[in-house]
Design brief:
Helix content is 10%, strand content 48%. It is mainly beta. The strands form 4 sheets. The chain has a 10-stranded antiparallel β-barrel. Strands 4-5-6-7-9-10 form a 6-stranded antiparallel beta barrel. A 3-stranded antiparallel β-sheet has the order 11-1-13, with no helix packed on it. Helix 1 runs antiparallel to helix 2. The chain starts with a helix and ends in an 8-residue tail after the last strand.
């Protein structure tokens, strides 16, 4: 899926440069907009029931009757006993991060005539769907009796050849109207690949902190091992554990006031107390930040738990404009200085509702800058605390507003005055081009 996006990025500049005449602004934007919208959806696979019988006579409409066995776990051994048959009305599937996060089978127990609802207890990896083994769904009204059915005996998933991708998010409904068959269609363009954000810093606008006034941020998620794992510390009854689930590269550009853009390194030192530019200014006033985060672990206590715990590792490269300013009359010799960092952190995410959530995290970071000062290497550690809240209306997660609060404090040999706050407000936006402007 992503190969088409990369092909678009390659072909667009080649097409523009290969024209016999220069293209106008409107024509150029139209080409780019078409490239962004190209291949907007792609079929990854199809869910369908394995068998069906049709009851259709002159008195009743067509009814798709699917029969499967109901089992009850035996107390004496691992075997199951046959308890009856089901007539299925509908199947609803919620796919998240490459897993069947929630599946609900609405049916009728033919033995008792009662309506029943079967669902999964934990996420099921979609990539394992066609492998051997049983996937048990349990009757939520009779959990104490452990009534269950084998999902694989009812449903099959046929993915398109060469399209066995991790499905980030999809809702599938199988019912009588679609003859219990539905395709998995996902967005497949640059808009769906990038998480693009625009935000401002309140403290920077009020001139309380030398923070970026306007900030642009772009990132993307790439899944590594999205399947839940089972180890001795985390058995099946203790929630879901993911190891090295995904990686997120990102890029950030910040626009500063002219007075705040350049960091004075004339007397910069780790223990500088009187200078307005302390060592953390190299981080606070960087106009470019590029890096990535790796999910080391992610733990979810239960299927619909509103809390997720995680641990991350991150690497960042900061680019800051620096100059030696000895007095106000001296024009500094400005240059760009790079600082590399790596860090570890833990955090918690609370998503009480699908369109609202808050998160908090703490990170320890090590910064390396060996070529800024000839007398000593300016390498240092920091401890940062971050929190974020987001909200979007309806179901359109591509357009959401968010609020961030960040605090960074220098450690060990750095002065206690070496710290800074950031209070950011902005929105996550779908990439769009307005050719009317």
């Amino acid at each position: 899926m992503k190969k088409i996006v990369y092909l678009i990025l390659l072909i667009t500049p080649v097409y523009l440069l290969g024209q016999d005449r220069p293209l106008s602004k409107e024509e150029t934007l139209e080409i780019i907009e078409k490239a962004l919208d190209n291949q907007s959806k792609i079929k990854l696979g199809t869910f369908r029931l394995k068998s069906e019988t049709i009851n259709n006579d002159d008195q009743t409409p067509a009814v798709f009757k699917i029969e499967t066995k109901i089992y009850q776990d035996s107390k004496d051994n691992d075997d199951s006993v046959d308890k009856g048959e089901l007539e299925i009305y509908s199947i609803k599937i919620d796919i998240r991060d490459g897993n069947i996060y929630d599946i609900r089978i609405d049916a009728k127990d033919n033995n008792t005539g009662e309506k029943v609802l079967f669902t999964n207890e934990r996420p099921l990896a979609l990539s394992n769907f066609n492998k051997r083994g049983k996937w048990r769904l349990y009757n939520i009204d009779r959990l104490h009796r452990k009534e269950n059915i084998n999902l694989k005996s009812i449903l099959e998933y046929d993915y398109e050849t060469g399209e066995n991708y991790v499905i980030d998010k999809a809702i599938i409904n199988l019912n009588r109207n679609n003859k219990f068959q539905a395709d998995v269609m996902v967005k497949n363009n640059l808009k769906s690949l990038l998480d693009f954000r625009i935000y401002s810093d309140f403290l920077g606008i009020l001139n309380e902190e030398a923070n970026g006034i306007v900030n642009f941020e772009a990132g993307s998620l790439f899944y590594l091992f999205p399947k839940p794992v089972h180890i001795f510390l985390f058995p099946r009854d203790n929630g879901y554990l993911y190891l090295f689930k995904r990686i997120k590269p990102y890029f950030n550009y910040s626009r500063f006031d002219n007075d705040d853009r350049t960091v004075n390194i004339a007397n910069l030192n780790l223990d500088e107390l009187n200078s307005s530019d302390n060592i953390l200014s190299l981080i606070q006033r960087s106009f470019i930040k590029a890096g990535g985060e790796l999910d080391i672990f992610e733990w979810e206590p239960g299927k619909f738990s509103s809390v997720i715990l995680y641990g991350k590792a991150r690497v960042n490269l900061f680019v800051t404009e620096t100059g030696s300013i000895l007095d106000n009359d001296t024009d500094p010799n400005r240059e760009n200085t790079s600082t590399l960092s790596w860090g570890l952190g833990v955090g918690v995410v609370s998503k009480r509702y699908s369109n609202f959530g808050i998160s908090a995290s703490a990170f320890w970071d090590r910064y390396q800058n060996n070529d800024l000062n000839e007398e000593r290497a300016l390498n240092f550690n920091t401890l940062s605390f971050n929190s974020e809240a987001f909200f979007y209306t309806g179901t359109d997660s591509d357009n959401a507003i968010f609020l961030r609060l960040n605090y960074t404090q220098g450690q060990n040999e750095i002065s206690p005055r070496a710290n800074f706050f950031a209070l950011q407000f902005g929105y996550r936006a779908e990439l769009k081009i307005n050719r009317n402007n």
